[in-house]
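Example record used in the benchmark description.
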Amino acid sequence: MKNQVFISSKRRKAEVNKNVYGHFAEHLGRCIYEGFWVGEDSPIPNVRGIRKDIIEALKALNIPVLRWPGGCFADNYHWRDGIGPRKNRKKTINIHWGNVIEDNQFGTHEFFDLCEMLNCDAYINANVGSGTVAEMRDWFEYMTYDGDSTLASERRKNGRKKPWDVKWFGIGNENWGCGGNMRPEFYADLYRQYRTYIRGDAKKIACGANDFDYNWTDVLMKTAAGHMDALSLHFYTLPTQNWSSKGKATNFPKEEWTRTLDRCKKMDEIIRGHCTIMDKYDPNKRVELLVDEWGTWYDVEEGTNPGFLYQQNSIRDACVAAVTFHIFHKHAERVTMANIAQTVNVLQAMILTDGEKMLRTPTYHVFEMFKHHQDAWTLDCIEQEMSEFVSSSVTKKNDTIFISLCNYGLDKTENIIFEHEDGNFVADSAEGYALIGNKTDDHNTFENPDKVKKNLFNGYKAEGGKITITAPPMSVITISLKV
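Model output (structure tokens):
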């Protein structure tokens, strides 16, 4: 029978680290300014300059970790520009993203204030491309030291008595490109040098490869695996594979839907390729793989600054997010963090703003629907004759099984049977939600902010050890039920 999934809850495979549902906020376009940060004097409701509505929306996602300050911006960021009284902070040029003035009103203290409001961990990306070992070491001490050093005293003078908890510390970003156009051999040695001066419990992250660059991973693992806790990986989904004309976020031809989803599925091949190399040097999987930049990338919206990477977000993006998460779950033994690019107003954003207006994108709703996968265990599932347009994942936490699936076909409803081999479902415990598109580019606007949102879903039938789910085209569905 077509579209059958046999579930064994006795055979757990790997835990889905909550950090797979992580986020990324760069000083790029309107992600920080006009996004998170509006300033304390803004008429937009805020807490110490940070928008209240965005905080409330992101807390509903159980956001686990936030990466900052970049991205390409990280390797042009000098942390001292963003501390002390705001009126005295240096104005610099954001050379990567539009050559606009960066006034550094949002810096180290503001970022950690944001993380504490969100109750999430901090992932700091340090400057290797244009910075120095001493600058990086001093920043780490300023943030984390609890003793009586000059830098710790300066932090206290600037308003923060206790040190912050830096869980994750990235040494450089895209050093094969905007972070310095380095060769892997050069960066591997540079990483080892910089890594020497970062002590403490923060996990040290080496800059990893861009999509299919397996040589970069091989050189880094061979040269520096013993000095790293994690290795990053970047992969973006483009419908056209032409960086000068990537395709539109809306009003796109149907063939671009297909190409986008096909490209998105390459994430599986790419992770498998890099994991194979990592396994050669690290068979015990001590070094974690972090996909700390991923998502869709289209041409910017007409009339917006091309350096700001502002794009709309449709049901197509929601399907990309769902399929990508299922791939991350599949590789949960090695992939322990992922950070979608980016949280607000940039690329595949959770949230878009226009002055005091704010909307949640279809991708936001996928994150909200999938949050129950965080820290749950993937189950051993055997698929039989699955449609090429259906993607699914099954996890379990305590006595609850959580099924998520995506039918990214354009015109065919799919019936998918999930059969529990070890027992029966508690039928009356089932709860379903769905995000469904009527057109390929259905999206939310400030005039109609709830056009695409999750709704209660009852298109399923649970009996005994089986649940049959009827999935419309262009849909993302979640079902939770007890066993």
